[in-house]
Amino acid sequence: MHKYFLVIVTALSIFSCSSKEDKGKLIAKVYDEELYDSDIEWILKQTPKADSAEVAENTIQDWINDQILVHEAAKDEAINQDEINRKVENFKNDLMIMQLEQKLVNEQLDTVVSQQEIQTYYNEHQADFQLNDYLVKVLYLKIPVDAPDIDKIAKQYKLYNPTDIEEIEIYAKIYASNFYYDEEKWIYFDDLLKEVPLQDINKDRFIMKRSKTRFEEGGFYYFLNVIDYKLKNSTSPMSFESQNIKERIINMRVKDLREKIKQDIISKAYDDKAITRY
Questions:
Q1: What is the pLDDT, as a whole number, of residue 237?
Q2: Are residue 188 and residue 108 in the same domain, yes or no?
Q3: How far is CA 93 from the centre of its chain?
Q4: Which of 42, 128, 160, 183 is the 20 to 30 A CA-CA neighbour of 246?
């Protein structure tokens, strides 16, 4: 199944049932649901021309398969349609807010970090670089065994492709019981073990090999990818941490800017008297 599956099927599930006026050529129909060429036009615009035919065919077939399964699921009275509709609406809202924030952050973010700022950060955060145990950067997922597309996640959690983390984050929002990933943040490996029931491992070897492991325990699948680590009983020199510190500073700016953007938009709505509470 091609890499665009999750994003495409989710998007088409939300938008392909809209008004069919001026939607162009009808290219597929499953029961009462119809797919038009305009429904997949936005996908093809983001696809290299050489791959467009294959992506179009895969997208159409994925939509057909999806509609067959949705039709069957809709007949099952045990499925809570209201809960599903609420999750879809929340997911759509999250995507819209995320895209708005990212657009404004891209327009306003100052990415220039001086050497003096890096030095100051390092001096003020020495404790961050005194290592009493292993620090790791990890991706961690806990998923119920009956969740869909487990085999797909079993490939994506290894993060071999640039788009893997985006699709995992979308999947985790809907299905994961627990999920952690922060490419900017180091955590103690022993803290991670409080969440992941790893047993009978050689910790030194496990971490230094940057292990990727999947296992089943207590009705859940656990996925753990050790992305990076720092040796215990050592202090990271500033020359080694320079890029990391720069990214931390920019990341703090991004977080602050995101919060400012949100508050500015919300404040404007109140100033415009757009809110009425009853």
A1: 62
A2: no
A3: 15
A4: 160
